Amino acid sequence: MQVVDVPETWPTPVEQEVEVTDATTWRLRIRMDDRPGMLARIAIRMADLECNILGLTVLPVPGGVLDEIVIRPATGLTKEQLVRAIQDEGCECSAIADADVRELVDASAATLTAASRAVDDPSRYADVLREVLAADLVTVVPLAEANPGRSEGGHRAAFAVDGTTALVARRRWAPFVQLELARAEALLGLLDAVRADVSRPAVATCSNGAALVLRQGLPGDTDAVAALHERCSAQTLFQRYHTGMRTMPRRWLHRLLMPPRGMSLLAVCGHEVVGLGQLIPGSGELAEISLLVDDAWQRKGVGTALMARLAVIAAARGHRRLMAVSLPGRDGIFRTAVRAGLAPQQPEEEGLLRIDIPAHLTPRVPGRI
């Protein structure tokens, strides 16, 4: 999505004299010195003008404070008259915009509510950020086109979402202040932390409609994993272990479930373990993975679900590439990686398959770019 250019000169925040109805609500931003009595003077002047103050937020800014006040003005009062009254008290009205009384909620509560919606649906990041910043527009752009140095006098801010995209926020009626930007950064950081929280079980659906739970293997899963190996054919076991073993010695099961330097991931349907994956950290940003899927559950998406989840876990742990062993003439692991949305390279002569983890799976560093 391309960034829409905005005018170099922003419209003045004080509009022409237009009478309003009783239902009109205005949002004002008033810059004033941070000293006792200033807010009281503004409140008294608004009372004299028969304005009803509905909400107040104090935003610290360099050299003073910026008070955001939501009012219901008296019938017949114009924005220009209100601005002159504020100026007479030695303050500056930097912006006036029409508001909605439905926006009058506690800022912290509103931010938490918005965060919960984004957790449920990550595709709503832009809508949630627009709401939290009271922005006019938030667009999703390629990271290379975000142009973070273009602030347009504080009316524009860019935030990295992942390694490939960014959110660009614009607001004509008032510049963003640091407190608002910090709130937005904290929100996006929280959403990233939730996205990177891979300790929770995940749910996947197979091509046959069966629901799987993907969770970390535990010592109590020994019997279920032993049963998985007993159901697997000799060919399936050979592709996984590259030996002619027919059964898994029980003394090895604990090491499979709880590898000393890594972790295991189980695909569970009901009470039955139908797939087993492993993630073993390697050197640097490399991690090794392996998969074993029950013969009866192969080609139903179990291996794809396991590999996709292992990639998310690996990315959260700082890995950027996976490695697997692909036997000569066997491209099953390659095709599984492609179906999982990963980027496998062609297998090397010794059978090693290197799989790049896409940037969108990598948790971003919270903060504005």
UniProtKB/TrEMBL annotation:
Keywords: Transferase. Residues 27-109 form the ACT domain. One of its GO terms (molecular function) is acyltransferase activity, transferring groups other than amino-acyl groups. It comes from the Bacteria. CDD domains: ACT, NAT_SF. This is Acetyltransferase (GNAT) family protein. Signal peptide: none annotated. Residues 212-364 form the N-acetyltransferase domain. InterPro entries: ACT-like_dom_sf, ACT_dom, Acyl_CoA_acyltransferase, GNAT_dom.
